[in-house]
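Complex record, two chains
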Amino acid sequence: MLQDKIQDVFNEPGCATNQTKSAKEKKKGCTKSLKPGAAAGGCAYDGAMIVLQPIADAAHLVHGPIACLGNSWDNRGSKSSGSQLYRTGFTTDLSELDVIGGGEKKLYRAIKEIVQQYDPPAVFVYQTCVPAMTGDDIAAVCKFASQKLGKPVIPVDAPGFVGSKNLGNKLAGEALLDHVIGTVEPDHTTPTDVCIIGEYNLAGELWLVKPLLDEIGIRLLSCISGDGRYQEVAQAHRARVTMMVCSQALVNVGRKMEERYGIPYFEGSFYGVSDMSDTLRTMTRMLVERGADKSLIDRAEGVIAREESRVWRRLEPYKPRFDGKRVLLFTGGVKSWSMVSALEGAGLTILGTSTKKSTPQDKERIKKMKGDEFHQWDDLKPRDIHKMLAESQADIMMSGGRSQFISLKAKVPWLDINQERHHAYAGYDGIVNLCEEIDKTLSNPIWRQVRLAAPWESAVSPALTAPTMAPTMAAE
Amino acid sequence: MSHIQRFPSAAKAASTNPLKMSQPLGAALAYLGVDRCLPLFHGSQGCTAFGLVLLVRHFREAIPLQTTAMDQVSTILGGYDNLEQALRTIVERNKPAMIGVATTGVTETKGEDMAGQYTLFRQRNPGLADTALVFANTPDFAGGFEDGFAAAVTAMVDRLVEPSPVVVKSQINVLAGSHLSPGDVEELRDIIEGFGLSPIFLPDLSLSMVGRQPSDFTATSLGGVSVEQIRSMGASVATIVVGEHMRIAGNALELKTDVPSHFFSRLTGLEASDKLVRLLGEISGRPAPARLRRQRESLVDAMLDGHFFFSRKRIAVALEPDLLYTVTSFLADMGAEVIAAVSPTQSPVLERLTAATVMVGDHSDVETLARDADLIISNSHGRQGAARIGVPLHRMGLPLFDRLGAGLRVHVGYRGTRELLFEVGNLFLSREMDHDHHAPHGPAHGPGHGAEPHGEDAHGCGGGSCGCNAG
């Protein structure tokens, strides 16, 4: 059953990469086979948690041994404006006896305890490798619990060993499609209801975008899943338009919502000035096409004009400071793209970017935009990055937390632009935040100091080579 | 002496806000204290990713950690091929001195025969004989962080240490448990070297996890005890075993090498430090250095100055078993009352704890038990619950992701004990100084807080000890 699901997810017509593959390649799926001893990255369960955990008022229960939750809980920066229940880590913490005797009863008891104690609108139950091996049927337990307790209990069947984080994202999307989306009707609908998929409100980023939507008159009916509420996610099928952020990860959800409910979707991004404006334009245009009032477009243009002129004005002071500064940008796929144009607008030079997660089409697009001199690295080893930085081929590296020490140990400024970051970079204000963070880091006085030779390294003490200050003073 | 209350373990099916971390993670930390080592998890790649992120957040260091990347098929058919491929790839790419393997829930559920796989690998790969290999069984579904650390240390002793025909009079072994931070190990080295002895720490995190600045990029641990040093532990004059969870490794070492071992349940506190200093004096035949004598005086003075703020304070502690024992014993030494001691896992050391309630539990249990406490001592995960019940949190243990220098705090010896005394004492002192001076003071401290909410008014500042009357 899980295998069917995975095949279904792999055979995604909405995915451009998939469309260029042969039938045989399609069946193999998009998971690159991992090389033992040289692999990095999260598992499918990790990916599923990333997608669903931001649903803030739901309880998230991990059915597995302690490693799956005990080592990982409380480590993501997805913010909620209300319920904080999603930050509570629940696990069945399977023991040896559960491995031998099966953990289904314990799972049911755990669900029951959570429902009785916390009364959440729903419980998400995550399958992991060990109970998948011993054969715990979480779908059956969830169904039983749902009936008994009168609450939605949603099985998320994405045990770690089935594949990568990306596959886990998709399987989480399938769980929403199968069990959540379409199960609740909204009190009322408007012609400007939208659903945003793939935005997780990291560091509160959604809150930099939502006020603009409000001002234009667009109602965010449902966000999957940043600052999410279960009821809102369950109402997503009544949206008029769906926006896919970071499209590759949850393209299955957007496409199937179109298939099932006739909701058109588009790919957009909140990162970078022009991408943000494009997103607002596309969203309003599509809403109007589906019957929303035409004035929506004018209001959007008004907001865009105001925000753009404001943001460029605010970026102006950074330009002389950023002149000649070279950036190494390492992020997955689309997101980096949107940032490049904005950073260049602020006067930075982008040396190159990793394209490990990009599609051939993406790469072509990058080539067209940037020319041949722009570097695209497919599989740059940490050692090579370190070498580039140590030889000061770049002034700052921007990447995820995993690679921060490559930069810091080379004594080169580094900025976190991944999921553990503490600053919000989305929307127009976000890009100003980003430039401020870059400027703060670049101009910090430590960089000169930490590169100084130790007293025992330099042959002659700087005090002695300095224009004989000490003797002069002594003479006075 | 104390009424020990234990909750039946089956009372709760859902562990809520877990305190427990997995065995392989503990094993990884132990391996990271070996020079040029690469720890390898035999399991799915997510196991490694989670462990890596947690250690990176705590130490703020690059953490070398690899995976055999088991998928569904290899999980069912057996993981030897993945293991062999991973070991070969690692040797080829990173040339480590040692690879430390830890099994996970996935490979343990399948029941991989690790001893057999070791032999098979050695037979099939004679060219890799130069790379030390250590395998530890560390299932995710049994035990916890401390047990995994212990399993890896025991495995290193079993695999690497050799008996020696000669004894090096000045060489001493220290089996340093997971409750000792890299900073603690550094402090112990200082103390031991003060007696003219050269210690070999297993593992030695003070050389690897203290903020090294490599001249080139390394994919293995940088610094730590070398494999050669571990092999030579049989030539030492004695072994100091620190922490209950190091006892098995200590016994294994003594059995294998005849080096006599000396067990220390803790090295924090005046008496515990005295015991260590006395032993080092006996082994070395040297008097305690002047520096240590001054530190002892200073600690005694700190105890005199600080005891006002500890007396009868009600404290809940939730830490890994041996650190839990260390901290609760120290608090008891200072006259504080440990109202709850929560451990993530079972351990023989729990029997010796001095606390009103001792239980195996999680952060939600702490939240329940600490409602009228003056302080909670736990890791960074404790902050959510502490905030909900409005009790201050002092962070100790692992992970500490919201504090700098987590790995470098020192709590052993005279100086470390004094540091801990000041850290905790200052929390109480500042609360007494900051309190509302206009509010009527409650009655002097009774033995037990009764119905007083949070004990806000119930500190013994009537004697002017805290200087608050000056306001």
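Note: Residues 23-153 of chain B form a domain with the Rossmann fold fold (CATH 3.40.50.1980).
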